[in-house]
Amino acid sequence: MADLEECANRRDELLTSKLWLNELKSQYFKQVKECAKDLPTDFEKFPSSIHTYIDHYSNSYAQNRDAIIAYRAREIFAERLAGAAFIPNESELKKLEASVVEEERLLEQVQLRLSEKVNAANEKIDSEYEGYQNAVDLSRENEELINEISELEAELESLSKTLEEKERREKDVVEQQSRELQSTHNDLVRETAMRDDMDRERGRLEDRLKRLQSDEEKRRMNVVDSQEQQKLAERWIRSIGPVVGAKIENSTLLLTLGEGVGEMSGRRLLVEFNTLGNVVSVKTDDGRELPPALNHDILMRLLSE
Known about the structure:
Radius of gyration: 77 Å
Shape: rod-shaped
Helix content: over 70%
Order of helices and strands: HHHHEEEEEH
Number of strands: 5
């Protein structure tokens, strides 16, 4: 009888443990399906904290000997009511009834504690799920940020290439403008030098013009003076006497005067002139110099008279 009771007790312990495990799994599956449909429902993939709760509950219920005895007493009572050979006496029935009442009370307490533990587990699951969801959201945001950063890096690289190309073109333009500016500067320097040369040449020409104008004025005055001198020479030659002979030797004109002119009668005048007909000197045959106021035209008129 003792062996049979011990065997029944072990069977009841096993059944009770399985009962509480199945009940806890059922409630956990329901909570998971309602609050976290995307989490796994495989028992082997439960979080380690859930396994801890399940082990704690199953051990606690399996160790509750009073509840196990009450279950066993109720089963025995049911078997005997069904016509078992052994019918308990009144004291045994009262004892069994008290055990059943106590078992129900204990069962209610266990169920209450289990409900509290399950609620705590559900709250923790909710908090863990919220953290998991936040982590998923952060991961998604991080991935989006990485994609945006990649796009920005690609855009930055494109802008960098565009900027480098623009800088290269601007550098080429600046170099071309520098060369053109240097060429323009060189032209300006040459033009400045030419202008300076022209200014110096203009100054020289102005000085020459002034000298020429002065020379022209002098020449004009000399012409006037020469005309006056020519008139005086004509009168002087006519006063000397007529020319009876003329002879040219090299650049010297030899004039022979006629008679009747006093001491100059029969004398010769040596008139030296240049290729332009200007008289250089007038001398008598005895070497006395006379005013050189004769020119070619005057001599020709004198010779033609």
